Amino acid sequence: MTEQTPVLRLEGIVKTFPGVRALDGVSLTLLPGEVHALMGENGAGKSTLMKVLGGIYQPDEGQIIVDEQPVVMSGPLEAKAKGIVFIHQELSLATELSVAENIYLGELPRKRFGLVDWAQLEANTNKILKKLNVGFNAKTRVGSLSIANQQMVEIARALTVDAKAVIFDEPTASLTDAEKVVLFEVIADLQSQGVGIAYISHRMEEIFKITDRISVLRDGQYQGTVNAAETDEEGVTQMMIGRKLDLSRNESHHELGEVAIEVRGLSCGNLYHDVSFEVRRGEVVGFYGLVGAGRTEIAETLFGLRNPSAGTILMNGEEVTIQSPADAIARGISLVPEDRKGQGLVLGMNCRDNMTLPQVGDLTAGPFVSDGAEVAIFDQYRDKLDIRTPGWRQTVGNLSGGNQQKIVIGKWLSMHPNVLIVDEPTRGIDVGSKSEIHNLIRELAAQGYAVIVVSSEMPEVLHVSDRIVAMYMGRIIRTFTSEEVTEDNLIQAISGIEGGKVA
Amino acid sequence: MAEKNLDAVGRFLARQGILVAFVLFMVGFSLWNPRFIDIDNVFGVIRSSAILGVMALGVTFVVIGGNLDLSVGSLMSFSAIVVLDLHENPAFGPYLAIPAMFAMTMAIGALIGFLVGYLRLNSLIVTLGMLSAIHGLTLTWSGGQNMDIANQDATWFGVFGRGTALGIPIPVLMFGLLAAVLAILLAKTPFGRKVYAVGGNGTAATFSGIPRARVVFFTYIISSFCVATAGLIQASRTMGAQNTVGQGMELEVLAAVILGGASLLGGSGTVFKTVIGVLILGFIQNGLLLAGLEFYVQFVVTWVIIILAVWLDIATKRGKLWSAIA
Which residues pair with A165 in a beta bridge? Predict the structure, then answer.
């Protein structure tokens, strides 16, 4: 330990919810001028800890100490007043207001008669924006900004107060590489002013690039703090999940069955054009490309959520039309959608009812839903997918991201589909659950499912796919087998550079 | 162990907050005025709550499905006027008047269901508009006149409002029976599950192959069926009706549903809870009358109590009484 006075200390924080000990004696020390990573799987307790720190939850035991003074946080405003500033992953901006109004929301500068001092407001804002080196100004309407720039507004907000500690919660989730550079400069700047930075992220390469120390939580328990310079990815991963991680390329080759689904010359407006591919039973085909390349739109078309403007879809050699999700389900097509909370789950419903939702009309005894049949399905897939929940009555919204995703996967596996489409299977999911889900996808293929995986993460596509379809601007640039593919030729393909003639 | 049990009891009570409040209220009022739990008084309250209750059952489906129905009061006036008018029309008579009235009322329900479900119009706007439009339709039908059955002794039509079976008033029986059937429909059938899914997260319901528009459509069909039943009871009980007999009931109905604990955001609530909400509302109003308060005071006190109840409900969920919007 250095002799510096910590800007913030958490001591023995305990927080329990009915049935869960979310935080079990967690302690953390944040020194001035350090970047301190907080890592852990989803459900490890990071967000709960931050909510305790922000006064949204009150701890059952333990203390929050700011500048060596024990404090009770009554809410985010009090935290901000004490110099603890949060930058959330989920943006909390008023999109119809200007950048300046958002940054100073609640504390707009005033002149006589309580009127807003617009000139002062604009000047203050532009001063902060200049530091951030962004391409918009105080008067820009927030709703017209990209997500990344909205994030910058959120950061600008933090710079209005004399912050002692700034907590970044997954700040780079939606940033491009160039924007990340700017963010890291901002962080370095804060650091040099003696601000303590807590940095929550799943992205290892960032952690090792910018942080000084790393603290790890697992299942609500504090696992320890290490100096970033003295450890590596593997070491941190082991602390997080208690074992090693398999990140090898897919090499298992089992027998492929006949073609389960074939697409010929499919187009949909200007979303994608002339797309042709086939997926065999027992095969995982990965769709890789940048956001906007048309991958999700193809998945949605196959699931009946979009009508193609041209082309045909064949299943078992027969041409089919799929006009609604009900049609798709009837033909044995399942889609695990990219937005788990928005599209995949009814968060207020319990685990079982979510899982059986697509087939509830068939699980009947007479006119009534058969309780026994539903519970049987839930139990089967809870065991098969190792879903961790106190019971089927648990509300899905209370589960961790990984377990929620397993509920969605279970929901569609229990339909025994011919074709399983998985869109961004591990978005927002921690490393441990990630590799579980990857193994599961491989296993499903081995059992004879035809699987389509849409993903924006290269290691993921490389790890799970037998073949990889590279897309760029709505077109298939090239289809790779797992032998042909390299990181280089894949990146070239999704950037629109045709590496080969195979289309 | 004992502590754990206590904890479980506490959680149970928190979940059943409205029921607990109801019991406390009943006990308190009875101690203060024993006439309150006199069997005649109790039946009287349930009987006078039946019309409101029947309507609230249907609106429960609409609200759980994530929508509102503010047209029920106006539609109830319509159905009462129509059934009385057709009853007096020699071409119809009581046997044809009732099915004809149900068909017309449910046709209007179908129109609302079409607008909200298939055209995806905002239910607040649609049903607020329909409230007014249906009122106009009723006035046009009746020519602005009140409807009465001329020869009340010559018809069996009064049975729905005035009759009894096994000593229980028919309106109460109808309310109870309808509540039982709809409770089973909502809690035990695939359709009921779909209503919860559509109200809880419509997009996820679509992604699960649930025909969202159709489900919403049927919640309005159910609501209009309940309204028609309420209109029948109303017309039968008084053997006559004003054009405005259901005026303002849409808010009372909504109050009962919310008091029962259904979320206006959709996805939660039960038929049983709505019944409790209806009874609370009925007994509060009855208690106030027994306390000798003027009738008009009811409007004030009722709504104060509803707002208090909603506040307490939210407070138990949040775990604190005071919570600023943050």
Answer: A84, A196
- Is residue B57 domain-resident? yes
Q: Which tokens is A419 given?
A: 């074709």
Judge: A346–B201 Cβ closer than 8 Å, yes or no.
yes
Q: Which domain holds residue A339?
A: 335-416
User: Of the candidates A206, A241, A276, which is a domain's last residue?
Assistant: A241
Residues A137 and A28 in one domain: yes
How many CB atoms are closer than 10 A to CB A21? 15
- With contact defined as beta carbons under 8 Å apart, do A224 and A216 qualify? yes
Q: Is residue A218 part of a domain?
A: yes
Q: How many CB atoms lie within 10 A of CB B5?
A: 9
- The reply to whether A303 and A365 lie within a common domain is no
**Domain finish residue from A363, A397, A416:** A416
Determine the residue type at A354: N
Q: What is the pLDDT of residue A323?
A: 93
pLDDT, tens digit (0-9, with 9 covering 90-100), for B59-105: 999 999 999 999 999 999 999 999 999 999 889 888 999 999 999 99
Judged by CB atoms closer than 8 Å, whether chains meet at B209 and A364 is answered as: no
Handedness of CA A324, A327, A330, A335 (dihedral sign): negative
Q: Is residue A475 part of a domain?
A: yes
CB within 8 Å: B201 and A345: yes
B264 touching chain A per CB within 8 A: no
CB contacts of B204 in chain A (<8 Å) are 342-346, 357
Q: How many domains does chain A have?
A: 3
Instruction: Note whether residue A433 is domain-resident.
Output: no
The range of the structural domain enclosing residue B222 comes to: 51-280
pLDDT at A179: 74
Residues of chain A where predicted confidence (pLDDT) is lower than 70: 1-3, 18-20, 42-43, 89-91, 173-174, 176, 242-254, 497-503
- Tell me the Ramachandran region of residue A389: left when phi exceeds 0, alpha when psi lies from -120 to 50, beta otherwise: beta
Which residues, listed in sequence order, are joined to residue A36 by a DSSP beta bridge?
A198, A213
Pair (A227, A284) in one structural domain = no
C-alpha span between B144 and B81 (Å, rounded): 11
Per-residue pLDDT tens for B112-156?
A: 999 999 999 999 999 999 999 999 999 999 998 888 888 888 888
Angle formed at CA B9 by CA B7 and CA B14, multiple of 5 degrees:
95
Separation CA B148–CA B160 (nearest Å):
16
Q: A357, B200: Cβ pair inside 8 Å?
A: no
pLDDT string in tens for chain B (326-residue length): 455 565 666 656 556 666 777 788 788 888 888 888 888 888 888 988 999 999 999 999 999 999 999 999 999 999 999 999 999 988 988 899 999 999 999 999 999 999 999 999 999 999 999 999 999 999 999 998 888 888 888 888 888 988 888 888 899 999 999 999 999 999 999 999 999 999 999 999 999 999 999 999 999 999 999 999 999 999 999 988 899 999 989 988 998 998 888 888 889 999 999 999 999 889 888 888 887 888 788 778 777 877 876 777 677 666 666 655 54
pLDDT of residue A306: 92
What is the pLDDT, as a whole number, of residue A335?
Answer: 95
Q: How many domains does the structure of chain B reveal?
A: 1
Indicate the helix (H) or strand (E) that contains B318: helix B297-318
Tell whether B71 is covered by a domain.
yes
Tokens of B54: 């029947």
- Is B196 part of the contact surface with chain A (CB cutoff 8 Å)? yes
Say whether both A381 and A328 belong to one domain. no
pLDDT for A21 equals 76
The ipTM (two decimal places) reads: 0.83
What is the amino acid identity at position A57? Answer: Y
Q: Is residue A439 part of a domain?
A: no
Nearest CA in chain A to B184: A368
Answer yes or no: is B104 within a domain.
yes
